[in-house]
Structures
1.
Amino acid sequence: FMSDTIALYVIDRKGEKQTINAEVGKTLKDVIIREIEMDHFGDCGGCCACATCHVYIKDEWLDKISAKDDDEESMLDQAFDVKHTSRLSCQISLSEDLDGIELELAPE
Ligand code: FES
């Protein structure tokens, strides 16, 4: 059985854990913007040009997400507080495989 809705566990910028129900096929960035109120997240609208949608993916989920392309790599090169778990959430499309994914929003 595959559901069209998956659960995301997100630690927001205040350090609070939020559970989000998200539709498969949306980008991670769009769902976070819809569910978590904050300034300056996803400012470029998802065209990989701002890095404000920066998130840290919990290690065990990293290899379930499609690899970074060159644009994402070079944008992350210019971002702050980058870790090995860093991704730009506008470049991540939600699939059934990501049901239960845990992540943390990078600081503004
Ligand atoms: Fe700007 Fe992701 S929304 S890089």
2.
Amino acid sequence: MAERLSPDVYSEVLIDHFQNPRNAGVMEDADAEAYVTNPVCGDSLRIFLKFEDGFIARASFLSSGCPASIATSSAATELVVGRTPEDAATLSRDDYADAVGGLPRAKVHCSVLAASAVSQAVEQWRAKTAS
Ligand code: FES
């Protein structure tokens, strides 16, 4: 059954990200990508990052998940652009939750997918570029 997107439960920002996801889709020329799943609910996220001159230039995502995970993934693709890999890796699940106007208590864990995926993609980039 589809989850109800009540404004009493979710912020307007979250609902907008869920209904109009930013940067959704595969990035064919990505420099790094990561795939993460939530072992409890089975929701998943694949994130793609493109780097230029030491900064994240573009980000995109594919998600199969709840509204909160899709919205925080969408917000993540905006939040990480313009940051260095080091800076992006320091973003926490709270930062992603804040980016969608906060999450209801029962959905706080949903922002872990975005935080984990960004961290793993940055790690992949660091490993590729380490000399
Ligand atoms: Fe699975 Fe939200 S319920 S990530």
